[in-house]
Amino acid sequence: MNFTRKFVTASALFALVTGLSFAPLLTASSATAPFKHPTAIALDHDGHLWVSNQDYFGVTEIEASTGQVIRVINAKADGFIDPYGISVSGQHVWVVSGGVEYGNGTSHVGTVTELDATTGALIRTVNLKKNGVTGLSAVSADNQHVWVTADGGGRVVELSNATGRVVHVYRGRLNHVEPDGVASNGSDVWVVGPEVGNGVVERSAVTGRKLRTLTPTHPEASPGEKYKFPVYLSPNCVTVDARYVWTGNGGSLSYKLLGGSVTQIDAATDKIVRTVGSSADGFSGTIQSVDSDGTHVWVVNGSVSYRGHRRGDSVTELNATNGSLVRVIQLHDGTYADPVGVVSNGVDVWVTDTGGGTDGIGSVIELNADNGAVVRTIAG
Fold first, then answer.
1. pLDDT in tens, 226-281
2. Are 326 and 378 in contact (CB under 8 A)?
3. Which residue among 189, 214, 237, 353 is least enclosed by CB atoms within 10 Å?
4. How many domains, in total, are found in the chain?
């Protein structure tokens, strides 16, 4: 799972209340909300959801089967500053902080936090600022490696999953390129953005060596032009399942369409299979995140647009074999406000809503993967 980054201002950053604590197994109707603008979400092997809260300086752990909140972790020692990306590998939870953008347009933070998935205890924090890396945007962990993207200078950092030590810092050729997403299957790692501004860079997860760059494009003649030229589709989020790599793109398949697109890549052959993005797919131009459980591909459309009576605030379900549209699940009904992150286990789907819930500071929406129906809204 991966998602498009958002930023908060310095004033919002320092207006937060610290020192909050929650007892284990809080109910979703607890008077004190366990979320504050939740963004990324991941599922561990024990059936627990881990949610990063952009404005809590912390992470919320939820029992997926019941929707009960287990704990909120926001100790100062955990190094959370605007936690925005989260990934789980085995009994390790990895959280990246430092997406907050200050008045001069830069970030001064680059912290990676490792938690024990069983106890929630802090294992270590890794300060990537010592390596000249700040503005962290996404994380993906496999059994041996932890891959972190940083938007400044198009950098990708490889950490050891065992020790947390920095193995290598890979730098893009163009300083203005901003990698937004990363996904690893243990053999290969795919990064959207670095080195080629509108491409997907594939590296060996074993050696770190760059293997190739794939650039999703669509041939089209611009308005008033006769000849067709490649239109770059600008992938901004990425996920991988057992067969395919899926990217959520900011660009659409037609100048006439207001929305984005999704590209399907064969993970074995490294060939682009197809790109989908019809008017019926409901994609927004700022697709927030994408996740595949091997049967379904879930695409979160976070932005809202009224042109042609289309809007975001929805989740699009695609067939994970052929990319065909299954359904569009409209979330915005006055309760949900701004879906961002998504994760699925094939039975249920969980979507973070950074502005939803009755208190307007966030919730997690659980959907049935078979029919798209809302099962529950956690902390709503």
1. 888 888 898 989 999 999 999 999 888 987 777 899 999 999 999 999 999 998 99
2. no
3. 214
4. 1
